[in-house]
Design goal:
Four copies of one chain form a homotetramer. Chain A is α/β, with parallel strands linked by helices. Helix content of chain A is 44%, strand content 15%. Chain A has a single domain (10-267), classed as Rossmann fold (3-Layer(aba) Sandwich), CATH 3.40.50. In chain A, helix 1 packs parallel to helix 3 (51-58), helix 4 (70-84) runs parallel beside helix 6 and helix 6 (112-135) packs parallel to helix 7. The longest helix of chain A has 24 residues, at 112-135.
Chain lengths: 268, 268, 268, 268
């Protein structure tokens, strides 16, 4: 099922770790739709991941970059354009990590060094990516930038911890930078607020399985999968959505606007 | 620029009046993407419109229907399936009319017969359409229903009058019916909240030109046109957005999340 | 616990049926805070209710009025000012009824006569009340108008049926009329989106008990009671909230911004 | 105009700089309503401010604290309880500062050391305050914590710069911590999203005067003043709003739900 929706489009995809990653599925779909791209991830994540396999499958090159390092990002943006032969049309930011979560610190017992590190990796990195693109004028007109987020930015999911606050910051960055990128460069910026997804990263969160099951029962169409998210991202990279910008787009089978489902209420 | 995104898909398109209509542009785009459909409009609107020209261009048949009449809608749904040779995949609801606006009644001086008529035409009609589809099991799994709306449902635009309240009702119907259509039939229901658009209908609203100009200056990417809206609707009818449901999707060049733009503030 | 917050203020309270009613509790609290008012309800509701007892306790007069009748409302507004000796400072609209719910019609099987009746009673009545007040210039500057609503206007609660759409309309009316009442008369208009409350009316809804229990477990502070709502309404009638207008205010122990609670997730 | 609404209640008020400050007005109003409190500010802000005058007027003590220092906050929380003779009932967080704004860096040209410092002062400080209160069990049941914020967290105001993202983070912290403070301690946490206010801090922002004028014309009731905000905060500290939590409450004369006003559209 490919439509040539991204024929001739060039971009950068952050955050493909392994084949469970949303970024991995998106890379495969972008490739199928005719787009070309550079893959990138943090050096440490690349050691753990199978990103080389993805690069081979999609004919892509890999440029390691720490998304908290302005220097790395500037290098990435510059090299990507050289490799792909021109300015960029799309960028996917799929990066998130909370040190507090990893170290088992409760939200009411944060260690603030951890908090600052998680904020830098998960939220500020999106600003850094866009500022690198903006300052070097690396995006084509009507280009599209997408970051992945989660509804914890709007409502509390207790185990999501300080990632909730990071995602709220990230979504605000999308709006704020979207204003300037729109006005000055005709580039759109949006976030996709995705169902809980059993990626390798997601599975690290406490109680993740029961949460997936709850979300499934609360979503009239069921949870959106990583592949569903890749499909949706394709539409946002395509020329058919040029006037959608500064939006947080729920992609969740209806979870976000379901107050309670029949199946959930029956447990009470 | 066609991708075969809707190849083999069948549907109904409400509300094409003339070539300025969003529904007209959508019909043309759906046709270009390989979809087939029945066109419908109120008998009175059809007399004024050029819908026959559209039918010819797209190889479509026209079935007149008053969208406030359950009988007309049931007939439409039944005939459409017969003509198209099977269940439906997409429906576009693009219907709206306020008698209070037409008659020049202020929001603080409504005539309630007018209010009830406008509500029936603009808002309840969407429920009636969906109930007709639902009860006769006329939608294929993973079908997509879209209605057009406007941001006056969330924020006040003084001249929009009682259409604001009608649109709020319409958006609620999308969510409410979206729940049941999702759970029972795997069908998604969304609304697109479109920029002010200089359609023949839109132009009837008082002060419309200055409003279009204001919105243009408040939208970092400029107002979304009728053709932009058609493009976006195509993505929502396609198989790439299967898990998007019960959403109100702003398609407005960023207006909805812009508090003020530089160009607007400079007037103060 | 009384503070004289409403000393000298005059108003109208709609919808007190019996001592479980939010309007009943509000009347008692307004009285304790020094306000005076006229009580009103539909003639039919008054036959069932114990409103005379409330009138005696609060030294109030009762003026029956069908809130769908402009004539009744104009009479009410006029008489209330006569009885109370001047213009009004506050109005509480606590009216809602769905014929579809009463008759056991599912949301996907609405009878549209029922729908129209419920919309008129539950939603349009709020416009009619305000238009009567506005046209006869019955409100003092810095007066406050409050209507009660429910979060089904934003998210689907399947058994809430067409009341969800009515509440969405009602909330839009609050915004729309709030704009004009603010600009022209310095009067504020807000809605309180209250926890599910075991009033006599609320208890008629199918599955209400399990829903109350679910909401209790989803609300970090527990459900807000009818008395809590009366307390909150007092603050909105007082002079301390003069610049709050056109808002929908969640009063629900935190339910609205809780994605899931620990107690709910443990059931999965 | 005092009602004894806060008789016997104890608290901490952050951020009173001079008599234009919202925190200053709030301190005066809390005092008038019978509450007692400790005043605090950053050592550097205190040198510039007239906080001693406020302390004298309200019979309060001052405890300097850097709100980014956990040690300072723990000391503050402990000393405040000692001075006031018991646990706390209310806390006001009114702290915000962007180094990027001060240094004239555009949003698309942030210096990330500045960004991190501003985030720590403006956003993370609210988490630090609450964590200090929570861990030392310093709040009484049904206590109330309020932070001030601005609508730039939802929509872009170009000159507001990275404070927009900081406020989005702050509001998320209110929700996240509100969940745990609600469940475990029966304490509520809310943010007030205030009109642009000509405080000494606010006036530092570029183009602030024309922005105030624009907001005035967009708000049906006009901008809310610092004193209006103090009044509103009193209601949130009182016992009348016990079930309001995890909310972001717009206090802005209706700006937030006004799409455009007649006066603004007339400029186009």
């Amino acid at each position: 099922m490919a439509y040539n929706l991204l024929k001739g489009k060039k971009g950068i995809i952050f955050g493909a770790l392994d084949e469970n990653s949303i970024a991995w599925k998106t890379a495969m779909s972008v490739h199928a739709e005719g787009g070309t791209f550079v893959l990138t991830n943090a050096p440490i994540a690349m050691r753990m991941g199978q990103i080389k396999e993805l690069a081979e499958k999609t004919g892509s090159q890999i440029i390691p970059a720490d998304a908290t390092s302005v220097e790395d990002l500037e290098n990435l943006v510059s090299q990507a354009q050289e490799i792909l032969g021109g300015k960029l049309d799309f960028v996917l930011h799929s990066i998130g990590m909370s040190v507090n979560v990893r170290k088992g610190r409760a939200y009411t017992d944060e260690k603030y060094d951890f908090t600052a590190k998680g904020w830098d990796v998960s939220a500020l990195s999106f600003h850094k990516v866009m500022q690198s693109l903006y300052k070097s004028d690396a995006m084509n007109e009507w280009g599209s930038i997408v970051a992945l987020t989660y509804m914890a930015a709007q409502r509390v999911f207790p185990d999501y911890n300080d990632m909730a606050d990071n995602k709220a910051y990230l979504e605000s960055v999308a709006r704020s930078f979207g204003y300037f990128f729109g006005k000055e460069k005709r580039v759109r910026v949006n976030t996709i607020s995705q169902s809980p997804t059993p990626t390798t990263a997601g599975q690290g969160v406490k109680g993740f399985d029961s949460f997936i099951s709850y979300a499934e029962k609360m979503s009239p169409l069921g949870n959106a999968s990583a592949q569903d998210c890749a499909d949706y991202t394709i539409t946002l990279f395509s020329d058919l959505t040029r006037k959608v910008t500064m939006q947080n787009l729920f992609h969740d089978g209806g979870f976000s606007n379901t107050g309670v489902s029949q199946e959930v209420i029956e447990k009470f």
